[in-house]
Specification:
Strand content: over 45%
Largest sheet: 12 strands, mixed
Number of domains: 1
Radius of gyration: 19 Å
Structural class: mainly beta
Order of helices and strands: EEEEEHHEEEEEEEEEEEEHEEE
Distance between the termini: 41 Å
Strand order of the largest sheet: 9-10-11-12-13-3-4-5-6-7-8-17
Length: about 300
């Protein structure tokens, strides 16, 4: 039996509308409806400031529609779909992992023929729109099974990194996690040849839900006196992919980032600190989480 991730979703009415509002009156443009949603475990093998190896991991949701698919942090996806409650202190570990791994929200096929990524370099978030580009794939010998699906093998190259992937022809879509796409079936597993990045399908289920795009940058601010996270929306900064690639390498790739993750910021900083257990520290700048003990930056794109 094919593995299915069982999730109770509080689906909303009028899913086919062009725009929807969240509890906080955040306007979201509906791009299309999903055919299914796949959930992946995304893992990065990296190191800490002392050079000791560490493994960071987080779940990602891949919403697949007709010609449009969106990869983003699974907890953010669930929060939007359930549309109830607010992110509070129990979401702090997720926010920390999201920041450590520099998770972007990536929508392939929006606008048509383009890919739009929402990237974060605290205290700002950026909307990066680029031409849609597919990896160069070559079919490989052999097969394997992921989540009960028989998968074929392929090798590819994309923006300076080589990838080995599995894809399931029984799931008819060209989609895959992040910007990996273009095979005759859902990409169920992908790993780069350096053993740094990997995406593994852990569940798939049918649903009818909107694939959305926000008109502004959604950030979480911790309200100290209420001891909870509160959502606010600020305008996106615009950047090209080349500009963002250079800026991320200059900031996150700088050796100073590991010991002082705010080394590049100038002027007053809007910082809130929250200590939960032991010596674990949580800090936010401009509403965006900044890890106090970053890990070595491992870019997904080298060029």
């Amino acid at each position: 039996m094919k593995a299915t991730l069982t999730i109770i979703l509080a689906l909303v009415a009028n899913m086919m509308s062009a725009q929807m509002l969240t509890r906080d009156n955040e306007a979201l443009d509906t791009l299309c409806q999903t055919k299914f949603t796949a959930v992946y475990q995304y893992t990065i093998n990296t190191s800490d400031a002392e050079g000791k190896p560490v493994t960071d991991s987080i779940r990602l949701a891949l919403q697949v529609g007709d010609g449009v698919w969106k990869t983003w942090a699974y907890e953010r996806y669930l929060f939007q779909q359930q549309r109830e409650g607010e992110m509070g202190e129990d979401q702090m570990p997720f926010l920390r992992n999201e920041a450590l791994m520099h998770i972007a929200t990536t929508t392939v096929g929006y606008p048509e023929g383009k890919t739009t990524a929402i990237e974060s370099i605290p205290p700002l978030q950026y909307a990066v729109t680029e031409d849609m580009e597919k990896p160069t794939w070559k079919m490989a010998e052999g097969s394997d099974s992921v989540c009960g699906y028989l998968c074929q093998k392929a090798n590819g190259e994309f923006r300076g990194k080589k990838w080995s992937v599995l894809y399931a022809e029984d799931i008819p879509t060209a989609a895959g996690p992040w910007k990996l796409q273009g095979l005759p079936g859902l990409i169920t597993y992908a790993a780069d040849d350096e053993g740094i990045h990997s995406f593994k399908l852990i569940g798939i289920y049918q649903e009818t839900a909107p694939i959305t795009h926000s008109s502004g940058s959604v950030v979480m601010k911790f309200v100290i006196n209420e001891r909870r996270m509160k959502k606010t929306v600020i305008p996106y900064e615009k950047a090209t992919r080349e500009q963002m690639l250079k800026q991320k390498n200059n900031v996150f790739g700088n050796r100073m980032y590991l010991t002082d993750p705010m080394f590049y910021m100038t002027g007053p900083k809007e910082i809130n600190y929250v200590t939960t257990t032991g010596e674990t520290k949580y800090q936010f700048v401009g509403g965006l989480f900044v890890p106090d003990k970053p890990h070595k930056y491992q870019p997904l794109e080298l060029k």
